[in-house]
UniProtKB/TrEMBL annotation:
It comes from the Bacteria. This is AhpC/TSA family protein. SUPFAM superfamilies: Thioredoxin-like. InterPro entries: DUF4369, Redoxin, Thioredoxin-like_sf, Thioredoxin_CS, Thioredoxin_domain, Thioredoxin_ResA/DsbE_sf. Residues 313-453 form the Thioredoxin domain. Keywords: Cytochrome c-type biogenesis, Disulfide bond, Redox-active center, Signal. It is found in: Cell envelope. Residues 1-19 form the signal peptide. It comes from Chitinophaga pinensis. GO terms for molecular function: oxidoreductase activity. GO terms for cellular component: cell envelope. Its main location: other. One of its GO terms (biological process) is cytochrome complex assembly.
């Protein structure tokens, strides 16, 4: 009986431990006198995202407490007046982890004063790979002639280190093993993509490069657990694709994606490539066929933000390709209306000024009956008011194309619509004529539409 009680108590303790994870702590000292702050980053889809920041005290000490840490890598960097150093330090955090660092400079030199076996082993790896990384950095003038022998020379030590990865934490063991391969591959590729006085041809590369630059090398998204994962995908894609065929403006995207065998990684590559464009028309022409790879909310947001940044809203620029369900269940997009002049009315059943425009809209529709004009009303009523919207449309005998946005949609956000009603006009090619057009009650609207026919 006594043994049973002790067992139940132990199980209860285990349950409490898993139900209430302990905070993790990163603390330490930064010796660089010009530094006045520290930044902490976590990882999102292979990139560093600022998680927290703090100032250094008079003795240049710092501390971060993470109440509910997600097990995995975090990165820390010193900062000067809010600007972070490019050389960050990778640490592993989990529930209850206590890490103390002694940071010597902004070049990545540090020591682990306190930490679990995971962080001590991670530190050992970063000390091993550090000199090779330095040779491939922008600040180093080493060329491939000196770098390639260093790559070959470190291979036995890397193999030995991988055999030493056997902590009690199986999740960490998998992560560090992947990290070793990823760091080596990214560093080896770095000498080929960084500006150098001379670059090798394929025949001059060590055999190691033939293994890491094969097409379909990356077929799993777990590489994105690394804060450098997205950059690694970018380096690999550029180098591996160039081995398959000559990269041109016409084939660049298709060829680059062809060497990746994971749809999430394809999405990561696409998002990174967004910054290559300065024209919304060119951007849409290239990326429309590949939007299926933008699978996460972050990728969709990047697409939205890029299109918004590229759009000037000036006459003649491409309009936002909205997509909303119609009152009969069909989906209508701006692209589906190509060939027609499009008048868009953003409105809601609760909006008094919107309702005042309805009779004038009906008059305008009747006057232009048979003309190649699409009258599109987009309701911004809340999702829960959809039936109310349907009843209102029916009761008012509203014509045209009735669409339901279900709240303040991406289209409103895209055009910075802060109030309704809002009328917009697009030409037969879906290009902007006006994103703040006259209302139907104004005499200027009808001549504007007629001028576009």
């Amino acid at each position: 009986m006594k043994k049973m009680i002790l067992l139940l108590a132990a199980l209860a303790g285990m349950k409490a431990t898993y139900a209430n994870p302990s905070p993790a702590m990163i603390s330490g000292n930064c010796a660089l006198k010009t530094a006045n702050g520290m930044k902490l980053y976590n990882v999102r889809e292979g990139r560093l995202v600022e998680f927290a920041s703090t100032t250094l005290d008079k003795e240049h000490n710092f501390a971060f407490a993470i109440p509910v840490p997600a097990a995995g890598y975090y990165y820390i960097a010193m900062s000067v007046d809010g600007k972070a150093s490019r050389n960050n330090i990778r640490v592993y955090l989990q529930s209850g982890e206590q890490v103390t660092l002694d940071i010597q400079d902004d070049k990545g030199h540090y020591s682990v004063v306190k930490g679990g076996e995971e962080n001590k082993l991670l530190y050992a790896w970063q000390q091993l790979i550090g000199p090779l990384k330095s040779k491939a950095s922008l600040n180093d003038t080493t060329t491939y002639r000196a770098f390639f022998p260093a790559v070959d020379a470190i291979q036995p030590a890397v193999a030995t280190f991988k055999k030493s990865i056997h902590t009690k934490n199986g999740t960490f063991n998998r992560l560090l093993t992947m990290t070793v391969d990823a760091d080596m591959e990214s560093t080896a590729m770095g000498i080929l993509v960084m500006p150098r006085s001379t670059h090798p041809d394929k025949k001059q590369m060590p055999a190691y490069y033939n293994t890491i630059l094969q097409p379909k090398r990356y077929c799993a998204a777990n590489i994105l657990e690394l804060g450098e994962g997205a950059d690694l995908v970018q380096r690999y894609t550029m180098l591996a694709a160039s081995r398959v065929d000559s990269i041109t403006l016409a084939n660049r995207v298709e060829l680059s994606l062809s060497v990746l065998c994971n749809d999430t990684l394809k999405g990561v590559w696409l998002v990174n490539d967004f910054r290559s464009y300065r024209s919304l028309e060119k951007f849409d022409a290239v990326y429309t066929p590949y939007q299926k790879y933008l699978m996460t909310d972050n990728m969709q947001k990047a697409l939205f933000d890029t299109r918004k940044a590229l759009s000037t809203f000036k006459k003649g620029t491409a309009g936002y390709n909205f997509s909303f369900p119609g009152i009969n269940g069909d989906t209508v997009t701006l692209a589906s209306l190509k060939g027609k002049v499009v008048l868009v009315d953003m409105w809601a059943t609760w909006c008094g000024p919107c309702k005042k425009e309805i009779p004038f809209m009906k008059e305008l529709e009747a006057a232009m009956h048979g003309k190649n004009v699409a009258f599109v009303s987009i309701s911004t009523d809340k999702a829960e008011d959809k039936e109310k919207w349907k009843a209102f449309v029916k009761a008012q005998n509203m014509g045209g194309i009735q669409l339901f946005a279900g709240g303040w949609s991406d289209m409103q956000k895209f055009y910075d619509v802060n109030g309704i009603p809002r009328f917009m006009v697009f030409d037969k090619q879906g290009n902007i004529v006006s994103v703040d057009a006259p209302r139907p009650s104004m005499p200027e609207l009808k001549p504007l539409l007629e001028s576009l026919l």
